[in-house]
Amino acid sequence: MDPALSTTLGALHREARRRLESAGIDGAAFDARLLVEHFTATTRAEAISDPDRMVDAQAVAAADAALTRRIVGEPVHRILGFREFHGLRLNLSAETLEPRPDTETLVDAVLPLIAQMVERHGTCRILDLGTGTGAIALALLAAVPQAVAVGADISDDALATALRNARDLGLLERFTATKSDWFGAISGQFDVIVSNPPYISSAEIKTLQKEVRDFDPLRALDGGADGLDAYRVIARESASHLKAGGIVAVEIGSSQNTDVTGIFHDAGFPVVTALRDLGGNDRVLVFARDGKA
Ligand SMILES: C[S@@+](CC[C@H](N)C(=O)[O-])C[C@H]1O[C@@H](n2cnc3c(N)ncnc32)[C@H](O)[C@@H]1O
Questions:
Q1: Residue 105: CB within 6 Å of ligand 1?
Q2: What domain range is 180 assigned to?
Q3: pLDDT single digits (tens) 128-145
Q4: Which of 68, 243, 266, 293 is the right S-S partner for 272, CB 3.0 to 4.6 Å?
Q5: Are residues 126 and 223 in the same domain?
């Protein structure tokens, strides 16, 4: 493919797939399709029904540059600049984690509990600690029109992206972004505290896949010496920010169930539900002060 020349859509798709496959990229066919569709502003249906349509040289060059970035290891959604989460399109930026499908397990775990709270009290106040793109808070707000949420993060870049996502999704009126070191700048009490904190041990970071290690922000990954630093803070300080009958729900690493359950138990929060992700790994723990949700 000569990036200086126009070509047909079908030829561009074939060449993109060939390049990623020969570079040994996992999921080459899928990534090639996403990149070509995005940079040519075409759909899958158009690639099938109209493979001979011409793609201009500018779009060919943009697709070519995107494929080169993918070949050197940049994840496909970082190149696109957005990722789908719980049916929402979320913009990414340098200091936001790419939201993962595993985290949808957390959203699905708390949604019925939030619906019950709304039924009882007419509203639900949510705190999302380490909000990143706003993924968890915004997915919950999109599903429950009566809920309001505060998204807290230590990163200004992440907070700006979360606000942009809230605006794009029409959720800005019910979403507040707050710069805070965990609970440091948080005031008031909440019905639901959710968090997908950094939970990888510092030593493990260098063993992660290149796509994660080199492109997800370190601050979103590094959970300290044993990966549990953030859980200790959240467990210790949740009590003073939780309304009576409230719940705390966290995402965990697949081997952290016992440790995190113990940390919250010692802080006065027995576990009420433990859930696995679609891969069958322990992924979400829900806690309540009275052991009932
Ligand atoms: C694993 S990411 C989760 C992002 C998002 N909630 C999601 O699930 O996609 C953890 C987030 O915690 C934030 N974070 C790290 N340390 C923090 C701290 N001390 N206080 C508040 N947020 C922090 C990071 O900036 C990052 O956005």
A1: no
A2: 94-288
A3: 999 999 999 999 999 999
A4: 293
A5: yes
Over residues 43-94, the pLDDT tens digits come to 999 999 999 999 999 999 999 999 999 999 999 999 999 999 999 999 999 9
CATH code of 266's domain? 3.40.50.150
- Residues 33-43 pLDDT 10s: 999 999 999 99
Residue nearest ligand 1's atom 2 by CA: 220
Over residues 283-291, the mean pLDDT reads 91
Q: How far apart are CA 278 and CA 126, in angstroms?
A: 25
Residue 105 is assigned to a ligand binding site: no
Nearest CA to ligand 1 atom 12: 130
Please identify, among 80, 108, 123, the residue that sits at the C-terminal boundary of a domain. Answer: 80
**Residue minimizing CA distance to atom 8 of ligand 1:** 196
Please, are residues 6 and 57 in contact by the beta-carbon 8 Å criterion? yes
Phi first, then psi, for residue 38 (nearest 5°) are -65, -50
Q: What is the Cα–Cα distance from 282 to 78, expressed in whole angstroms?
A: 27
Counted domains in the chain: 2
